[in-house]
Amino acid sequence: MYNQLRKVSRRKFVQQLSWATMGFLIACNRNTSQNAQSVRVGAMYLLTGGFATYGEFARDGINLALEEINQAGGINGKLVEVIFEDEKAPVQTARKLVLQEKVDFLLGIDSSGNGEALVPVIPELERILMVTHAASPKITGELCNRFVFRCSINGPQNSAAGAEIAAREGYKKWTTIGPDYAFGHQSWQFFQQALQERKEGVKFLDKTAFPKLGAQDYNSFISTLQNSGAEAIWCSLWGNDLINFVRQGNSFGLFEKFPVYMELGAAMEVLTALGEQMPIGHWVGTRYWWQTPDTEVNRNFVAKFRQKYQTYPSYNAQNAYVGIKLLAMAANLAKSTETQAVIKALEGLEYEAPMGKLIIAKSDHQATANVTWGKTAASDDYNFRILEPIVVVEGNSIRRSLTENHCQISIMDN
Asked: What is the pTM of this model?
């Protein structure tokens, strides 16, 4: 017996003790706001570095929603407060928010890579995570669990909407440029699949370009695209990467030679940075566009956002706004902030968001909503490109089936 005990290494003992301690802390910390004076939400976004404008827009959307929620009585009569953290170390940050800051809910995540790293850890923290941006299909697919929800459009939905537009055009030979991590490769994969389902005779070429995230020099990648033999280009670059690519592509005349379908080209973070440098007449996608739908909910949201921040809301601002609104709505419906009660209230929940009607599926916790694309156009009324025409693709027509999605939540619950 003594010899067997000695075989347990010091490292393993400390690791086991750490896990046991964390479990104890979570148990002691479980849903503390039932007796607390406020409800606490931990929000994690990219708040530093080259993609920080996305996190800043998300923070603005949350703060606007927070004012509205608290003015309406908060959550079950308690004020709601939000603690913002940079998501650069998502697992450690989530644990800090739950164990030290004692948050009741988690919200956010911009990067798909960060989302994929965080989602498997969420069940042990026993808190709901409402993903508002990260688009990896795995988040509500292979990695799905009861604690994770997503209120934004995912990658396959946006790619399928782009394929719906592309299928109406005559282009048959395609290449791509995208960031060299999960999102970029998944985007190309799902675009190919969706376009093949909608158009016969299309070809996807071997000469593709996948620069690392945060690349500065796109010259060699642009040359690859120009020499690929393609008739059209699918582009999943976003943020500063897309801004740099467009500026350098302009100097090569790329956008005069090829139609470039930019999956996230209609992000306000991109359009306002580029201004007149964004080429006209190219299809761009987004997960929300402030000019549509023409509803009272959207008009009010845009007006309040502009009044507070003197700019138009980006899709990330809208998504974050919706995310915390959904958490508050579900907790008020459940009359509780207890995790399991709020999960049940969120499942199947319908919400009239600025982007239009949104439904959180019980089967995989993924939102279904319409997706907006449009062609870049100049306007005397704005110092950035707008979308004209605007095409709205119906959400149910681009939603993946449970078989395609590989989510097992419904099986877990049986």
From this structure: 0.89
